[in-house]
Amino acid sequence: MIATSRSKPQNFMQTTFKLSHYTGPLIIACLVLIAGYFEPLSSAWLAYDRYAIEGWETWRLFTGNLVHTNFNHLILNLAGLILLTLLHYPHYRTLRFLKVFTWCAIATSLGIYFFSPSLIGYAGLSGALHGVFVWGACMDIRNRIHSGWLLLFGVIGKITYEQNFGSTQEIADLINATVAIDAHLYGGIAGFILFLLMPGLGSFKQKEKGAR
């Protein structure tokens, strides 16, 4: 009988600091700040606009997520991006984060275009951030971090509440626009689908290697 030593699995929450954990969110934050600096020109050329998209200005499907209605809107969404990064940074690698964010952003806009035809204009990170949040919560669950379930059920509850009762008037007044609650729904769905379509990530990949 041969005795074999087995190394103790690394605790997910003890992940070593790496710049790549933060580079992706930093790139998005810089793009948002640059777009904000050049307002109102940025919104004129970049915001989601159904009629402009129908005129083949398809870049707006992505860039509409980077512009904001006013400074308050921009700060709120940047705060949300920072919070998500603090919650889920061990899951982030530069390219991985940018892929997840980009697909969540585009899927949010496509959801609005096909399923919310009455929504003519849209701007802001919130739809894409809901997708990144759902993706991160699912990655927590995959890595056996039980708080991931709490986060996932929390965001599902928030989206469900919004779909039934709408958003608060205080937020609408703060950002000087109606809150696009459908964007949160489409973003959240996109984040979950991306999680299912991105195999070999997190602890699953590590376990597979360990079994060989």
Q: Which keywords apply here?
A:
212 residues; mainly alpha; Rhomboid-like fold; 11 helices
Could you describe the 3D structure shown?
This protein is mostly helical. It has a single domain, classed as Rhomboid-like (Rhomboid-like fold, Up-down Bundle). It has helices at residues 20-37, 41-46, 50-54, 60-63, 71-88, 94-115, 126-142, 147-165, 169-175, 181-197, 202-210; strands at 48-49, 121-122. It has a two-stranded antiparallel ribbon with strand order 1-2. Helix 1 runs antiparallel to helix 5 and helix 7 (126-142) packs parallel to helix 10 (181-197). The longest helix has 22 residues, at 94-115. The chain is globular and about 45 Å long. The model is unreliable at 1-10 and 201-212 (pLDDT under 50).
The gist of it:
The protein is mostly helical and 212 residues long.
